[in-house]
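Fig. S4 source data, part A: sequence.
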Amino acid sequence: MRPLPLLPLQLVLGGVLQRIHRRNPAIFDRLGEHARARFGIRPIDLPFAFVIEAKPPRLSVVRELPKGLDARISASLANLLALLEGRVDGDALMFSRELVVEGDVEAVLALRNAIDDAQLDLAAEMSSLFGPLGAPARRLFEAARGHVIGSAGQGEQSR
């Protein structure tokens, strides 16, 4: 079976990133000297990865992470989502080896602080793209998030 095309996912997630940036214009300012860093994020349980750049805000969905990234982050999708929403302690995940960070750790810490300050709610951000269908979309995204994050490993503990 051929893998699904990545473009629809990239369009949706790129829209979410743009919305997050509009609602939190200073989010990437927290990166300071790392504002031009390129981050590769690899969910270990999915057949694709993400490349995120802060300035200008851009998200790419790729099959394999390219060379030349400033930092690479890998973990299960559940742990990555929980980290993004501030529901788990990244340090605990690193020490339990459920999260692997390679490259510029200082840039990753700056990214983590920026995300923590934004207090993201992915279900709200994604459902906002659906206009009048936003409320039912949000319920669907919240249920999916609960299912995915609820299946996370032992590092899945609240801060």
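Fig. S4 source data, part B ends here. Confidence is low (pLDDT under 50) at residues 152-159.
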